[in-house]
Write a structure and sequence with these properties.
- The protein has 72 residues and is mainly α.
- The protein has 4 helices and no strands.
- The two termini are 19 Å apart.
- The model has no long low-confidence stretch (mean pLDDT 87).
Amino acid sequence: MVVDSALVLGDLVHERRTARGWSQGDLAQRMGVSRRWVNEFESGKGSAQLRLAFDALTVLGVVLEVRDEPDE
């Protein structure tokens, strides 16, 4: 999966969260943030703190891999 925007990353978190049967409140509690933050992050709001975004991925067991784009 190519994550090229805050919205795509938010969609990924939403998919992983719902696959586990967790509500936004469940994820928020595990992360120590508000449910509102989870909602805004999943909605692709660009002001979500990057540290918290990585926390969400960690809690959901998602590894983010960064690669160089191949030359065209």
